[in-house]
Amino acid sequence: MIHQDVLDSYEMTIGIECHVQLATLSKLFSGANNDARDKNPNTAVSPIDFGLPGMLPILNREAVELAVCAGKALNAEIAEVSRFDRKHYFYPDLPKGYQITQMYQPIILAGYVDAPLLDGSTVRVRIHHAHLEEDAGKLSHYDGYSLVDLNRAGTPLIEIVSEPDIHSAAAAKAYATELHRLMTYAGVTLGDLYHGNMRFDVNISVAKKGATELGTRAEIKNLNSFRSVERAAEYEFIRQVELLESGQRVVQETRGWSDATGKTTSQRSKEDAQDYRYMPDADIPPIVLTKDEVERIQARVPALPQSYRDAWVPLNLDRSVVDALLANQSYAALISSVQVHAGDDAARRVAHWFASAVTQDEEQTAIIASNFSPEGYAELADMVAKNELSSTAAKEVFAELLTSDQAPRSIAEARNLLQVSDESAILAIVQEVLADPASAQSILDIKAGQEKAIGFLVGQVMKRSAGKANPALAQQLIKQQLGE
Amino acid sequence: MTIADAKALSAVDAVTQAIARARQHESFNAILHIQEDRALERARAVDAGEITGVLAGVPFIAKDNFLTFDGPTTAASTFLKDFHAPLQATAIEKLEAEGAICIGKANLDAFAHGGSTENSAFGVTKNAVDQTKVAGGSSGGSAAAVALEIVPFALGTDTGGSIRQPASFNGVVGVKPTYGTVSRYGVVAMASSTDTIGVLTSNVADANTVMEIMAGKDSKDMTTLPDFWSTRSLDGPLKIGLVTESMTDDVDEGVRIAVSSYVESLRSKGHTVEDVSMSLLKYALAIYYVVVPAEISSNLSRYDGIRYGRRATAESLAEVYGKSRDEGFMAENKRRIMIGSYVLSSGFFDAYYLQAQKARTLLINEFNELFSQYDVLVMPTAPTPGFAIGENAHDPVKMYLADIMTVPASLAGLPALSVPAGVDEHGLPVGVQLIGKQCDDGLLMALAQQMEAA
Q1: Structural domains present in chain A
Q2: CB contact under 8 A, A279 and B73
Q3: For residue A108, with 0-12 CB atoms within 10 Å meaning exposed, 13-18 middle and 19 or more buried, which class applies?
Q4: CA B239 and chain centroid, separation
Q5: What ipTM score was computed for the predicted complex, to two decimals?
Q6: Residue range A450-455: average pLDDT?
Q7: Are residues B297 and A277, on separate chains, in Cβ contact within 8 Å?
């Protein structure tokens, strides 16, 4: 086992390439259905995706617009003119024998992502560029044969290429997480990691701290969760330092990651690298976008995560609460809407309800709420503020409100949860309790100056009112009755 | 044989007679397969009035790199020998919508690579005038079928001269339109930046009729231009440039005589013809044989034996690719794939492909310069008449030289016609080439028609 001091004398340098599948209806160059989830193999394939002779690509305008939106989320310039190129290699999942990509003139130019770290600081990762390209199909291997499924062939992707600005596994994970949020918030992708909507290739090298040259890098391909990005970087850091410490060298190669073993393994070395024979694709005219068009397209990008973080500063939320809310764009938008319409206090209450209702797993994006009207949640917060509901009762109403179109007051009434703040009604109960012989000792204690004893009496009032009495009011009335 | 001749008959008669002539001329090997069932079915529908249109009942033949129903689409290759297309090319669909009837598919150099139709996997097509000579290529079968009067028109593709040169060799009209005039959808791709769809006919008016139907924007081909085709007539005399570099001693004397005599007829019609120099003409062939093989190597990548076409029996994936492609492609296909892969490979891309594209831009600039002074440029279509079968078969460079006059217009995307300009001393046809500005196709047609009437 390598000593921590030795590890600490090294620094890792990471650049990440991220493939994002775009949420278009049809494919990048054909009219075939782009959503192949749960479809039978080769049922979402057009003759174009199939690479039939004489077929020509027809560029999907929606994919271009989503790339332009992605550019906004990446704080990047959009190229006025971008073009498509062909990347050649033979593989059964690549029907044309080339992938259409953007090698020379990508649509998204330099930008940056600010990713928040756990300690509250931020790492800025510069984006080198991002380009449009088509996905390949899928192969599945069996004993002695392989099957090709072209449902995914031609799915539009943007590949986001970062600069090597990342120097820790935690920062790598933070960048991947923030990138996912940006792309889903901007409406660029569905962001379903399980179905490979975003895949990360992590390029990592190590060098002695203070060294002027970077070490030889290895590329860990096809990571499909934030946690695996982090774990693979951690593993690779130690592996490379151990190699160097034992006098060996790091080989430039592509490596795979196994979640099960927690290890990276060599897939192919640079010597096997193919010559892709890139060339311009003459079948597709250049994409030309004026500044006006870019602005018009980007106008549809809604608020992005950082704008929520900034807006929520006055709410004083814990980092974990913020993260839980940001994990679901609908929740974030809802909280902000409550904040705008009902103020910080109401927003803070609603934020905490949501944060405790949603799972803490950042990758869980399942929508548990169907009611996204901010008015209902604001009203619920208001009822608590006005002591019409206890905080326990409010959680119960909230749970129902999530999937209900009823007003919170109706829910509270139906469940008989409204607090009784009618003074005469509570006074009657207070008098009943004070008259009860079981209360005699407590009354004596209070009169003897033992204030704490009032708790028992309030508890009795609550019990007799089936929890609906406003406890503060009950306490006040007890004191009054006892002549204080 | 003209479109009017065909329309004078009932559709069934026109089709039946065309098929009979095709069979009668089998020795020329111009046609690879006849689509008799579908042709007759459509002919009966025309005669019943169910199908109407400008070309109702007119039979035609398509080069076998157009995807069509009823029969294979082979591109004259072993690879696609048994390939049956599930759809038809846009050009075919448009002609069918006007009632035209495709009776069969014409021979070509496999994947349209060649200038003699000797590279067909299914044997050479013989010249319609002299069976010892080549029909030219790659649309050799289409040119011979029109010259033999089997059909009034045949479709071809022209990437570097593949319509014009065989038109010249067989004494028919060949139209290579402005790049982007006709949709390439459903046509087996050769070189995406210069592939064009055109027609071969016995007269200019028929060519115009067919082009007018096929031209226009197609949502399935992003490079198609908005429909600009219009039938024009000449407003007055034109200023025409005769490219002097195309009339040197390297060019066959019979060709020069025929072209000179055509130039004299142009003058006699009142047109001004001046000698002009095109200094970059000598580089056109070199540019072409870098850029086009590069695009070919890319466009032929899809023929891998995985999804359709020939698949060799093999032990490994690499062997499936290697053997299938070895068996499916002709020597000339392989030569171009190798040249193309070489010029695109890392380390050579800048020196060859990029350099050639820069030179191509210079060539286009020179054309633009000339067209600022001249309405039309004229030169021979080919440096020789149809050469003997086998004569150039073992010398690829000599074979490529046959394209020297036709590749410049292809590289620049310009419209060019080959029209008959008489015969040489052996009676072999010679074509003259008229080249126009981008989208000036109509002017070329009008000029050619005026000259044809003379």
Answers
A1: 4-292 (no CATH), 303-414 (no CATH), 423-481 (1.10.10.410)
A2: no
A3: buried
A4: 27
A5: 0.96
A6: 84
A7: yes
